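Sequence only, no structure available. Ideas?
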Amino acid sequence: MSENYESDTLQDFTPEAADARRVVVLISGNGSNLQALIDAQSHDALGGEVVAVVSNEPGAYGLTRAREAGIDAVVLPHREYESRDAYDGALIKVIERHEPDLVVLAGFMRILTPRFVQRFLGRLINIHPSLLPDYQGLNTHARALADGVAEHGCSVHFVTEELDGGPVLMQAVVEVAADETEESLKQKVHAREHLIYPIAVKWCLEGRLQFTGEGATLDGTPLPPHGMRMSHADAAEELDEDLEA
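Reply:
I predicted one. Tokens follow.
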């Protein structure tokens, strides 16, 4: 009798599927990094689901990318708010309506208020087009070329109240060619952003990358100041770039 009971129970038991981890992406423009996340999700390589895309710019092409992927696309124009704090308060409400596990900045061209940062601290990440802490802020490619650097790249980092100053999670390096232009460098850096951002998002959603008071950790081990760094050669191989070029 006990055998029959156990057998019937097992036959009738259907494990409940774990709810997918939820991601909200903030954009202001084209949304190429958003597309990289959408592509990763379509191949079950994101570790979660982009449930909403929010833009402060109504004409941002990234909103079209979201709609085409069946993702909720929300326009929240910053010009309709009297202050930065008022806008961020409204943005918090829009984001929290979607109950995200992670908030991802993907070309969101707004300086965030301390109130906003503290609300999502530890689950708010950004990608920046330089090897942080070098070249915080804007015009990173032109500044790197002007300085004659040998290496440039991109960084994924946790967002803190210091602009582009949060703990770095991951970087990818570009070796700067002798005949490099701002446009060619920008394209190489973009390719690396699209390579590492989905990985960083996945590892955050899986709990492998975490924010602590002292910095960031991977699987409980503190990361160095530059986080995990993908070399130029490794990135070029992943991207099928010509190393002889």
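DSSP finds eight helices and eleven strands in the chain.
Hope that gets you unstuck.
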